[in-house]
Structure formats: C-alpha cells, structure tokens
Amino acid sequence: MSYLPGTGGQLQQEGLERTIRDNFGGGNTAWEEEKLSKYKDSETRLVEVLEGVCSKSDFECHRLLELSEELVESWWFHRQREAPDLFQWLCSDSLKLCCPSGTFGPSCLPCPGGTERPCGGYGQCEGEGTRGGSGHCDCQAGYGGEACGQCGLGYFEAARNSTHLVSCFGPCARCTGPEESHCLQCKKGWALHHLKCVDIDECGTEQATCGADQFCVNTEGSYECRDCAKACLGCMGAGPGRCKKCSRGYQQVGSKCLDVDECETVVCPGENEQCENTEGSYRCVCAEGYRQEDGICVKEQVPESAGFFAEMTEDEMVVLQQMFFGVIICALATLAAKGDLVFTAIFIGAVAAMTGYWLSERSDRVLEGFIKGR
C-alpha cells in the first residue's frame, strides 16, 4: 500500500488535537467539561479524527480503514490509551501489513544505518515501512557503501561534511583528489599505473570478442567491433587491403582483394543473353533489343509505321485534295500558255501558297512524321 511510515500517526494526532480545540467555545466551563467528556470518546469524534488520518489521494489507506472498521472502533473505545498511534497499531501490530519507520520486511528489521537515520540519510531503504523489500540502500549520487556512508565510485570527500563530495578525474573510480595522479582505483577498461589510470587496449588482449567477419577498434575504456569489407573473408582492419582471405568473387591483386570480372570468362547459357558483371559476382541479362518473358529472352516488337497520311484528319484531307487539284489546274494553264513566264510565276506562287497553308495547319505533326520516318 502507499502508506508512508509515521504519516498516519501524525495526521491522527493532529486530528485528536483539532477536534478537542474545536469544541472549546468559552463561557460556561462546567457545561463544557460535561459536554466534552461525552464528546471525547464519542463515535462522532472518531469519525472526525479518521477524516484526517489518510491523505485524500491515498485510496489504499482509505480502503484499509473501511475494511478494518471493527478494529478501528475497538482501538477507539478500548485500546487508545495503550496504543496512541492508530495507524501503527492497526497496520503494523494488528494487520501485519506495515512496519515502523526505519524498518522493513516480514520481521520489521532495521534498515542499514539504523532506524533513526536509515541509509545514513543519503539514500532510500528498499521496503522501508512495509513487510516486503530487501532493505538494500539506494544511495544518492556521490555516496556508496552498505549504508551510504562512503564516497561513491568517481567521488572523493573534499571536507568532512555531507556537502563537499567532489568528482574524481575521469577514469578514476576511487581517488584522493581531483587530479589525474590522485587515482586509487580505476573504472572498467582502465588500469592503474603510478596513481594514473591508463586505457587498456582490449584489441591487443583476449578481452575483445569480435565475430569472424569483424575487426576490433580500441576506444577509451572499451572497444568496438566493426564489419570487414565485403571483399574480405576475415580481416585485420578496414578496407580491402586488410583482408586475411578474399571472399568468393574477389582475387588477391598485390595487397588488396579486388573484384573479379567473371564476364571475361563466363558465357551465359540462355539464347540472346549476355553477361553483366556485379561486385563479387555476375548475372545474365537479355541482350539489347530483347526482353525477358517466361524465363527466356524474346525480341522486342517494334510497331510498324502507319504511313505519313495515317493521322490526317478529314479537314486536312480536303485541303490536300484542293491543293492537288490546284496544282493540276496551274500546270494545265502553264502548258496552255506555251511556256509564258508570267503564267509560270503564277503557277509557282499558287503551289507555294497552298503548301504553306497546309503546312501551317499541321506543321508539328508533319515534322514529327518526317523525323520518325513517316
């Protein structure tokens, strides 16, 4: 439950004092004493006291009181004098759900550091005030030890009081001062040498455990495993020049493992196939002008030309016919004029005008047709 040790008793005591004070009105003393003597042990006052025992948000506390109504009434009318702390008597002594402040577990054992100052005042005792928990001290930053009475890893005591804990130099776990040469113990990944912490090169020892296709890189206080190059089958470092062996599809050229062009020797078995080299391998693809269909390479079909006049509209055909008849008429007129230059010029001008008109209507399509061979 969410009950905080001592809180219930404190609130209960405040409720007792408040209910007594609220009922002193001043005036007729004899009448007040008679009235208060009846109120002092009344059920009315009990209800008023219980209203302040649990905080409004502590639903478990309220639930506990509701389930223990008979025990609470027994305490109020018969056990109040010998056990003045209701919550202590109810939760700890009677129901065996709680422990006194500074204790923990089924037997309510003292927390490390004692019940008066659990964990030295610098940490939290696990399970304190309950019938569970381990009693282990979760120390604040900078403190360590079973009861948080020592400096934590990476801290030293600059002065003999609780407010002067200072961090040790980077890799030092324990030290006598803040300087690099004040180390007494090093963090993991570092070794103590003449009161200094020196980085351990795990890659040069058996401490590093990298995979078969990885290589080790030392870092401060640790190491990293990085993947070998694709060309390598095991390696001693980065790149194709640090391979132990070459992977399949690569060959040793000088000090490096380089890609093999299998297409220099491989002949693709399929008809109309050609070899295409890839990194460390190759693949067979259809030759230019062919496409793969049902696992074989078939020739791509090129649409036949529909001719220059295939896309002409009906209006354009009419104009073309008019131009054709115009040319015939002009030609006949020229012949009739027996080669007269005036009529020849008129003929050429008429042909040019009709051609220009027709081309202006479909010039884009005509040019496209000629470019495509139509």
UniProtKB/TrEMBL annotation:
Disulfide bonds join C139-C148. Pfam families: EGF_CA. The chain crosses the membrane at residues 318-335, 341-359. Its EC number is 5.3.4.1. Keywords: Disulfide bond, EGF-like domain, Isomerase, Membrane, Redox-active center, Repeat, Signal, Transmembrane, Transmembrane helix. It catalyses: Catalyzes the rearrangement of -S-S- bonds in proteins. GO terms for molecular function: isomerase activity. PROSITE patterns: ASX_HYDROXYL, EGF_1, EGF_3, EGF_CA, EGF_LAM_1. Residues 109-149, 259-296 form the EGF-like domain. The keyword Nucleus does not apply. It is an enzyme of class 5 (isomerase). Protein disulfide isomerase. Promotes the localization of acetylcholine receptors (AChRs) to the plasma membrane. Belongs to the CRELD family. This is protein disulfide-isomerase. It comes from Apodemus speciosus (Large Japanese field mouse). The lineage of its organism: Eukaryota, Metazoa, Chordata, Craniata, Vertebrata.
